[in-house]
Amino acid sequence: MSLADVVSPDSLVEPKGQYLADLMGRGVQGSADAVVLPATVEEVAAVMRWCYEHDTPLTARGGGTGLAGGAIPVSGGVVIGFERLNKIRAFDPLLWRMHVEAGVTTADVQRRARESGLRFPPDPGAAELSQIGGNIACNAGGPHAFKYGVTGNWVTGLEVVIPPGEIVQVGGPLRKDVAGYDLKSLLVGSEGTLGLVTAAWLRLIPASESELPVVALYPDAEAGISAIERVLASGVVPAVVEYLDAVTLSFAGDSYPFGIPDGAGFMVMTEADGAPDEARRVARELQEALAEGAVAVHAPENPSEVTELWRWRGGAAFAILAQRGGAYSEDIAVPLYRLRYVAHET
Q1: What is the dihedral of CA 69, 73, 75, 81, to 10 degrees?
Q2: In terms of pTM, does the model score above 0.70?
Q3: Which phi-psi region, left, alpha or beta, contains residue 171 (left: φ > 0; alpha: ψ -120 to 50)?
Q4: Where are the beta strands (DSSP E) in 166-263?
Q5: Looking at residue 77, what DSSP letter applies?
Q6: Res 333 pLDDT > 90
Q7: CATH code assigned to 88-206
Q8: What rounded mean pLDDT belongs to the chain?
């Protein structure tokens, strides 16, 4: 029995192009014997069953927005993509939850939630391309992870296909579900090694009434890291705390909405959110903590300027990719007391 016998003809595509690479670029491309784009969870199960029975490598890919080669097939076999599993199965705005298939993009989830005054906080890069299934598989975060955590914090249930081709459900739509082992948390972040996520229940929250970014620029990493330490020591809880170093600014700085001043080589981005009065209070405290040693501090309040700022931040990686022809990027975690060392060495 061939692979073509277990999936529909529409599900098989040529094993070439985008399905063999990710955003890493630089000509890094894998090889595959087949690419399958299932339209149903049953087809996903059939593909896994066929690969299991034929001892064939199976590489899962979401939107292909990674920069570390995780979705690139290195041993031939079958690539399975989820772009056709793109339905929102249920949306319960009064219960703050959404049931989506793995191929729904991050941006679509965020837009649908926002239309009802709700929010899905995880905001990994390339939201228009990245898919919920891939975000769950990588436990993706984003700038707002400082306050709101990573994708796994917002997943309450999963539909997963596990070897040798069985469809299982773990968790569900309930906010509290402590019956049995926490298999959901085991699967989140497993990057397709334990199973293939085909759908998920997502938890939502009311959207913030006000979002006020505060951005400061410094001459060097030493001054910038000192500013971050002051923010953390101040007692305020910003929605965002992150930095962009001199290399990033050299590639993306020309399009920064408020202009990079002379002598700036390190950027600290923060944001205050919540009810308007609370957001303004936190924003003022952030400005005070960031002002010392800063070349410039920008605190836009106009919604269009705020949107433009985050659009610029979301495109920073693409600016690097466009100018360097590719990039290799991997997350690291360090103790806070080593942050200064990391900023200097990277």
Answers
A1: 150
A2: yes
A3: left
A4: 166-171, 196-203, 205-206, 210-218, 240-244
A5: S
A6: no
A7: 3.30.465.10
A8: 93
